[in-house]
Design brief:
The protein is α/β, with parallel strands linked by helices. Helix content is about 30%, strand content about 25%. The chain is built from 4 helices and 8 strands. It starts with 6 loop residues before the first strand and ends in a 13-residue tail after the last strand.
């Protein structure tokens, strides 16, 4: 590594497969057996990076996915945040597009900033529609094209923020760390 290089890699991980919550005690649903295996394999894959932080949606399926990832990365702080909750993409078509864009702008300002410590990797456990919208924002394409971005459970979509602040898409829906039978997507 060359001295002075600063890059922040953001690895968005969609949560593992889950059983939807039937009541308010399981807000966001709970991981099923497949989701736990997907999360463990994703954790093993992420061990190759210098991960300095794990952020997660505060919904249970994401928290459980993030906890499994964190167990393979000892000492890396786990930080829940509502910023990573699912985005209601129906708002793009029913007059609430400004709400979606405001949410994306807040998320962008919070996470897509220059690294202050050389090359670092951060993991963000979130939801499929949010990942799709982040890809659209990064590529500067209309948010209404979100449905053209595929997101498998525990797939990794990665971005790099360069020392000049420029954001580039590094990979989308990367799931080669999962065997074919665990590459699942409800959409």
């Amino acid at each position: 590594m060359t001295d002075g290089i600063r890059r922040r890699y953001l690895h968005f991980v969609r949560h593992g497969t889950y059983v939807p919550g039937a009541d308010n005690t399981t807000l966001g649903g709970v991981l099923d057996d497949t989701g736990r295996v997907q999360s463990r394999l994703t954790a093993e894959y992420l061990k190759q990076f210098n991960v300095v932080a794990i952020y997660t949606s505060d919904l249970l399926r994401c928290v459980q996915t993030a906890q499994i990832i964190a167990s393979a990365l000892p000492g890396v702080p786990l930080k829940p945040t509502s910023l990573l909750r699912e985005i209601d993409v129906s708002g793009l078509n029913n007059g609430r597009a400004a709400d979606v864009m405001q949410r994306m702008d807040t998320l962008w300002k919070w996470f897509f900033r220059k690294s202050q410590r050389g090359v670092c990797h951060e993991v963000l456990v979130s939801h499929g529609n949010l990942v799709r919208c982040v890809v659209c924002q990064a590529l500067n394409i209309p948010m209404s094209t979100w449905a053209y971005v595929q997101t498998h459970n525990c797939a990794i979509t990665s971005f790099v923020v360069g020392s000049n602040g420029r954001v580039q898409v590094v990979g989308v829906n990367e799931c080669s760390h999962l065997p074919a039978e665990l590459q699942t997507s409800p959409t």
